[in-house]
Amino acid sequence: MSTTTTGAAATELLTRAEEMVPVLRERAGEAESLRRLPEETIADYRAAGFFTAMVPADRGGSALSLQEFADLIRVLSRGDASAGWIAAFLISHSTLLYRYGAAAQSEFFAEKPYGLTVAASAPPGKAEPADGGYRLSGRWRFGSGAMHAEWATLSAMSPEGPLSVTVPMTELEIIDTWHVPGMKATGSNDLAADNVFVPAHRTAPFATFASGANDGAALTSYPLIGYPMNRTLNLIHSAVAIGTADAALELFAQGLGKRVRMQTQQRVIDEPITRQTYGKAWDLVQVAALQMQDSLAHTDRVYGAHAAAPASLADRARINLGLTGSGQKAFQAVDLVARASGASIYRTGDHLDRIVRDTQVMRNHAAIDFETMASVAGGALLGAGIGDYADPMF
Q: Which SUPFAM superfamilies does the entry link to (predicted)?
């Protein structure tokens, strides 16, 4: 696997991630049984410095760029998709806390410069005005990382409009709903709040919070806090998908030398069709990585400090299509090697079996839905707009 990281901090984190790949792969079965990551893995992430990877440098963090973050998550996902997924969210969601103002940040970071945070937006809860803040009630789905989180950043509707609100996990209920065939160890359970008080400083109008004009952007020199929220978070799904495809290629190659075609007694690795399949899958992963790299580089061009003009719909379409398209190609690569691997991979405990199940679940995530994005982004590129697609999410 090739990466594009250049910073010293990023290189060190990437080295530590490479060391964890066999550990994560070894723990993957246990993680599936637990339906969450083992606490040893969370402790290893903390010791490796991963949780400060996207913390501003002036707060003691590594302040990774988008591409450096994607490289890190790609490597961890090569060990296990669920482990990469949870690492990605717990690492990047600290940037959500840094989008709030100084009063909230003094609470979030009273003891350390990061906060392990779960984020859930659908369906939005209800925020009723109260003295000094709001009363929050609701139930949110797909709380990836909730089993390890200290804070929860949630969406809610108030009389003034949509809000982003953040509450301690101790004030929420985790509802055990995550019974799924793949990505089992993400523990993406439902979250529920019943009349929880949220002080005003831990709330923000969603449109402002999700934009580059959020309250925290002026409090730090870390550029990504001044990017729209979806530009940081939406890359996660493709980075995990590509890392998972890396693992599929690696495991396929390792297993080939042991396989003999029953009908011909020929080594499978000697069959031209097998070699062609691997070549096609390898090519797909390379193209996926380059497409993601282009999207992230374009994100920096149109949202970075030296951007010449606000991002156009065409800019946003290019970014979104690049990310969802790269994830789709990674899934196609997994499909190719899985079909060429024989029935034996579906024996319980085989890593390729887990990868197949993980990718089947991942590809249904809205953030990596290429068919929908192709339709919306195609309209933007044709000058027809994005219709009723939510603008802050495009």
A: Acyl-CoA dehydrogenase NM domain-like
Q: How far apart are CA 36 and CA 32, in angstroms?
A: 7
90: amino acid identity, one letter: L
The SS3 of residue 215 is coil
Domain that residue 162 falls in:
117-204
Residue type, 25: R
- How many domains does the structure of the chain reveal? 3
Instruction: Please give the structure tokens belonging to residue 56.
Output: 């501003």
Last residue of one domain, picked from the residues 149, 182, 204: 204
Give the CATH number of the domain where residue 15 resides: 1.10.540.10
Distance CA 146, CA 187 (A): 7
Would strands 151-158 and 117-130 be described as parallel, antiparallel, or unpaired? parallel
Q: Quick: pLDDT tens for 57-80.
A: 999 999 999 999 999 999 999 999
Do 172 and 303 lie in one domain? The reply is no
- Residue 360 sits in a domain whose CATH number is 1.20.140.10
Backbone φ and ψ for 151, nearest 5 degrees, come out as -130, 160
The DSSP annotation for 135-177 comes to: EEEEEEEEETTGGG-SEEEEEEEETTEEEEEEEEGGGSEEE--
Arithmetic mean of pLDDT, 173-196: 98
Q: What pLDDT does residue 259 have?
A: 79
